[in-house]
Write a structure and sequence with these properties.
binds cytidine-5'-monophosphate; 285 residues; globular; four-stranded antiparallel beta sheet; alpha+beta
C-alpha cells in the first residue's frame, strides 16, 4: 500500500464549559463534542525521498505550524523513523479558525491514515497520546462521533449519537484569538455555564428537543458586544427558520442551529448565505 485517503470531519461543541485554570497553563474543560458531515480530505502518499511535503488548496503554512504536518512528525518520531518520506495532500472545506476543529481534525486524519499506511505498527489507542502532543482537540478527533471531553480535552467518554437531525453552520467574518478568549474566562466571574449533565442525559434519552435546550458555550459570554451582536443575529435567523436551538462552537465564531426537518434547515442556510459566505448544511456522523 502506497497511498491512503481519510475524511477529516468538522466538530461542533454541543456544550463547552471551562472549569478553571490548571497549573500547566491549560484550562480544565468539560465539553460535549459531535462530528458532522462537513469534512476535509487528507491523502497520504509514501515518498522514496525522506521528508514531509504538504500541499493543499488553502493558504495555510506547509510546515510544522500546520497541525497535519506536526501530526506526521510526531508519528514518525514515535516510530523512531528518521528517514520517512511522506506527501500530504490536504483538500480543505472546513473554514480555518472557525471553532470547528478543522486543523485538529486534519491532524487526526493524518494519524489514522499513517496508522493504516504503516500496517498498524502499534495499537490504535496510541494515536490518542500522539494526538495529545499535537493539540488539545486532536485526541477527540482521532475517534470523532459523539463524546464528552474533559481534562485538557483528552479524557474522552463516548456518548450515544445525536438522533437524526440537520445542523446548519454559519461562520461570520471576524476571527477570535483562542488564548485571549481563555484569558477573558479567567477574569470573568459572571459566566453562564452550560448544563453538561443535562446534555449527556438528553443524548442517552435520544431526545432532540432536550439536546437543543441544553446547548451552551461559556465563551459566548466573554465576546465583545459587537461579536455578541453578530452571534445573536445569526441565532435569530436560525431560530426564525425553525431551529430547535442554536449555539456557538468552540472558541467561535461559527454558530450552528439544530433542526429536525431538512426543509427548514435548507431555508435557514439559503437565508444566511445572503449575508455570510461560509454556510454549510450538515448532519451528524
Ligand atoms: O492545545 P492547543 O494547541 O489546541 O491549545 C491552544 C491554546 O488554547 C493554548 O495555548 C491555550 O492558550 C488554550 N487552551 C487552554 N486549555 C485547554 C486547551 C487550550 O488554555 N484545555
Amino acid at each position: 500500500m502506497k497511498q491512503v485517503t481519510e475524511a477529516a470531519y468538522a466538530k461542533l461543541n454541543l456544550t463547552l464549559d471551562v472549569r478553571g485554570l490548571r497549573s500547566d497553563g491549560y484550562h480544565e474543560m468539560d465539553m460535549v463534542m459531535q462530528s458532522v458531515s462537513l469534512c476535509d480530505t487528507v491523502t497520504l502518499t509514501r515518498r522514496d525521498t525522506p521528508g514531509i511535503v504538504l500541499q493543499g488548496n488553502a493558504k495555510l503554512p506547509k510546515d510544522e505550524r500546520n497541525l497535519a504536518y506536526a501530526a506526521a512528525l510526531r508519528f514518525f518520531e514515535y516510530l523512531g523513523d528518521t528517514q520517512a518520506g511522506l506527501h500530504i495532500a490536504l483538500e480543505k472545506r472546513i473554514p480555518v479558525c472557525a471553532g470547528t476543529a478543522g486543523g485538529s481534525s486534519d491532524a487526526a486524519a493524518v494519524l489514522r491514515g499513517l496508522h493504516r499506511l504503516y500496517h498498524a505498527p502499534f495499537p490504535l489507542e496510541v494515536l490518542h497520546d500522539i494526538g495529545a502532543r499535537v493539540g488539545s482537540d486532536v485526541p477527540y478527533c482521532v475517534y470523532g462521533k459523539t463524546a464528552r471531553a474533559q481534562g485538557r480535552g483528552e479524557i474522552l467518554s463516548p456518548l450515544p449519537s445525536l438522533p437524526p437531525c440537520f445542523l446548519v453552520l454559519c461562520k461570520p467574518a471576524f476571527s477570535i484569538s483562542t488564548p485571549a478568549l481563555f484569558h477573558q474566562i479567567d477574569v470573568c466571574n459572571t459566566l453562564r455555564r452550560p448544563a453538561t449533565d443535562a446534555m449527556c442525559a438528553a443524548l442517552v434519552a435520544g431526545d432532540l428537543s432536550a439536546v437543543a435546550d441544553a446547548l451552551g458555550n461559556v465563551f459566548e459570554a466573554v465576546l465583545t458586544p459587537s461579536q455578541q451582536k453578530t452571534i445573536a443575529s445569526i441565532r435569530a435567523t436560525l431560530c426564525q427558520e425553525g431551529a430547535l436551538g442554536a449555539c456557538m462552537s468552540g472558541t467561535g465564531p461559527t454558530v450552528f442551529g439544530l433542526f429536525d426537518a431538512e426543509s427548514a434547515a435548507t431555508r435557514a442556510a439559503v437565508r444566511l448565505r445572503q449575508n455570510y459566505p461560509n454556510v454549510f448544511l450538515t448532519h451528524p456522523v
